[in-house]
Design a protein that fits this description.
By secondary structure, the protein is mostly beta strands. It is built from no helices and six strands. Strands 1, 2, 3, 4, 5 and 6 form a six-stranded antiparallel β-sheet that branches. Strand 2 and strand 3 form a beta hairpin. The protein is elongated and about 55 Å long.
Length: about 90
């Protein structure tokens, strides 16, 4: 059981996310995000580090409701590419 958790006492990662809003009343937005993380950074033999790049756009229906779409390209341990849709609400 202890081997499952080997290296997990240390984790590391970072991301950077530039974005830009435009259009009438700034209702459209574009963004990109680059992320890197390693949940098993304490294991020198681990190759679990993940790099992910996201490219997406947002559309604000109202100042408090946003529709979101993005494509993610992931490489590393999981290599999971995907397309995401979402709705956000702030109050």
């Amino acid at each position: 059981v202890t081997d499952i958790f080997a290296g997990r006492e240390k984790q590391k990662g970072y991301f950077i996310e530039p974005s830009y809003r435009f259009g009438n009343d700034n209702q459209f937005g574009l963004f990109t995000r680059y992320s890197y993380w390693d949940n098993n950074a304490g294991d020198d033999n681990s190759s679990d580090a993940v790099k992910q790049a996201d490219f997406g756009m947002n559309y604000w229906l109202t100042p408090t409701v946003v529709f979101k779409a993005d494509y993610q390209n992931q490489s590393g341990a999981s290599d999971d590419d995907g397309f995401n849709l979402g709705v956000g609400y702030s109050f």
